[in-house]
Amino acid sequence: METDLESNSYRLSSDALARAERAAAFYHKNPRAFASEAGRIVCSGAYPHLYEDVAFGVSEAGLMADQLLAFDVPADLIEKEERSRSTLGNFIQARDFLDMNQLNKEHPLGVVTHGWHMQRAVLLAKRALNVPLREIAVNNHDGVRRTVQEKTLYGVYEWMLRGIQPGDTAALQHAEHRFQKFIAKARRPVRRLTK
Known about the structure:
Layout: E1 2-4, E2 9-11, H1 14-29, E3 41-44, E4 49-51, E5 54-56, H2 60-70, E6 78-81, H3 87-94, E7 109-114, H4 115-129, E8 133-138, H5 148-161, H6 169-187
Parallel strand pairs: 3-6, 7-8
Antiparallel strand pairs: 1-2, 4-5
């Protein structure tokens, strides 16, 4: 989400807009996928400003929902999850909107994200929700090759999640926190020893 402080206006980032557009396109191409009780599009994303748990501004989920309506997706299929601030949080909070018993191989949970983010998102969704998934990649980043650094970081992340049982929210959040600390440390400049 992008904020224009001068006009106090909010708009979706180009990445978030692309995700909304892809979700709407998937709906229009596959309306029968939304025919069951589980058929919902959950827009995830918190408010940009929080003060003592009071939200200010417009949530990213709200902006995405508005965009889906503009793309002619029926309002009764759209849910807004406005509390999460991370990919893991998206899946944990989405449980409140999903009928987990209705999700199965015939009606999997669709994960809409960019190709470069899909592997991590699917890994987290499997750990947080333990339901069948369908990958719905946003086209503008499909086919992007991952760098050696990204592959290494993903390997570290996967290693940090090993042994965590599906649905163990506390352990997943702890692993996510450890990974974010690892990333911050990895981004620090390396001191070179000189003679």
